[in-house]
Design a protein that fits this description.
Chain A has 128 residues and is mainly α. Chain A is built from 5 helices and no strands. Classes of the chains: A mainly alpha (128), B alpha+beta (620).
Amino acid sequence: MKLSHFYKFLHIIILGFVFFTFKIFAIENIEERVKKLTLELRCMTCQNQSIYDSDAEFSNDIKKIVINKLKAGESERDIKKFLVARYGEYILFRPLMNYNNIFLWSFPFILLIIGLFFILIMSKRNKV
Amino acid sequence: MSSLVGFLSLVIAIGINFYLFLSRYIFKFKKQKFNLFIRLSSLLTLLSFFSLMYAYVVSDFSNYNVFQNSHSNKPLIYKISGTWGNHEGSMLLWLSILSIFSFFFSFTKNIDKSFQRLTLIIQSLLHILFGLFIVFTSNPFLVNSILVNEGLGLNPILQDPGLAVHPPILYAGYVGYSIVFSIAIAGLFQNTDDEWLYVAKKWSLISWTFLTGGIALGSYWAYYELGWGGWWFWDPVENISLMPWIAGLALVHSLMMVRGEQAIKKWIVFLSILCFSLSVFGTFLVRSGILTSVHSFAADASRGIFILLIFFIVTGFGFLVFLLKEPKKSNDLNLLFINKVSALVINNILMIIATLTILLGTIYPIIIEVLYNKRISVGGPYFNSTVIPIMIPGFLLMSVAPILSWQTNKINNSKKYVLAFIVLSVLVLIQSYFLDFNTWGFVGLLLGFWIILASIIAIFSSYKIKINIKFFKIINPHVAHIGVGIAIIGITCSSVFQNELDFNLNEGDKFIVNGKTVLFEKIETTNEINFQSLRGKFLFDIEKNQSKEIEAGKNYYPVSKMITSEAGILHQWNKDIYFILGDQKNNEWFVKVLINPFVSFIWLGVIIMMYSGLIAVSRR
């Protein structure tokens, strides 16, 4: 068996697992959702610390807001919008995927594609 | 007095380097004499560094730098480490390490003498640049204009044994790449044979090992001192040290291809220049005060501009030489899907993508602020969802890469690996169902165990097992990868399966952590030499006779009026139990307990990687 086949096989297994787990385990309880969301928010009064990790007054206030809003049924997106309107984009550790940040988000994947092309060209040149 | 000695020897050392650089084109030196001068300048730089250290140890407050950053009632170790606990001193440390590397390089044998001299000339140029930077913008030997009996004190957060040794080791890594840089440039100029690649490999491995140690010390410090229970925060300063580390890792791996007679010189030279450029760039970002963190001491714009200038000179010069004196085209690579060469090429491409992504993410907020005058953050979530997925194919490959063949894409015993992988994934899946299922947890555990398992299979099926030094050198790549696997397991478990418990307690209360009863004994305050401490004392597992005592609390440093948190950590081989004492409210203390599974695996993995870095230095 060639190693290449093995790796194709392996890749499919992993992708399959990842896909299924995303499907099956999408439901989470409020506590986990709070953790997930507050980990992505910056404590504005601390030094590069997430709201989840911090015990500053600011963070505790935001945690309360997040919990209340989640309980009221608002989505993570709405909460983020609310916080950005109040404190600016600086509060988000995960930059918004919008038109302005398109370069930031696409950069690694553009590089990946260039890398792939590079390998393809190199291996083609080899065969000739 | 010591300041005068220090300053004079610093200036003379720079003068010698000037002389050496000029004399190469005016006088003809005999080679012994040349090396002698290099060593002399190194010793003078060290003398200058030690005289600054002496001023710190005896608390000589007539030195302005000592006055600003030291205090007479500090333990001796922090007087010593205070030498590099400030901008000026740390730049002098940088220069001293640069000259130490030149010093040792001047003793290298088995190397073309004219090549060695050219390398050292380039080192001299770097010495001059950084030396002038110190003399003109950050002189640590300025005289204090007022007479004082006491200094202003060292930032309390730096008063820690881990952080005392972290800068020298990290700098040894950063500055070590200067030698690799010089070798690569000299290699471009002379372009004789490939001998320099072997020399470059040794030095890049040494630098990489130091850099690994420095980063690990830094994150271990963050783990127990910052008191959030995490050890990596994708902080800009951490990212900056990670970039040369990954680029250096790519360099070490491409230098492997030299052995396969597949030298891709161009790429190796490029990486060598990149590593040092990233190191200087990191220094610029941290020292210029553009980024705020514990590392940026008093910020001063003129210094930032000066370092930026040095960065442009070094990088510009490096890449200019690279473009003008391009190495002769080496023979085509024997790329197959998948043999060792293509595995190494893929690994290099992925590592460079990771480095560039981290670079963009780190400077992106600065760019946006300059362009749109808007502050945004690029933090952990961005890096986690870009860098980590990109690295996954690399992690998959590294398990078997060391035993791949250079020539063909066949692999022995491939059935064994497939079988092992299937069994492993089923096992990890079953395990995941019993614990809380988490996608990243699953992928991380699978990758970690797969790397370890495949490396072990590879060792046992490809080599004859013998217990001698030669055998350990042969299996070294596998050992390094096992270290990575162990670290991945530790990283995954401690970040994904971390458990947090919050309590509000009175003294004397009992509470349950992880099935064990813990007693909150008492609160104790004491006065130490340079701080006041507040400690909550906990007894873990009181039902047993050998219950363990844990102390968590805060320190108050009156000199700088700062409070630091001191986490109490109970280390066990499979988990750390991490106590944080919060504030007192309504007569109750807030206590946070984090259970971090398998943190020790991270440090174990790092130690294994460093071990194999050192072993690889001795292997040709």
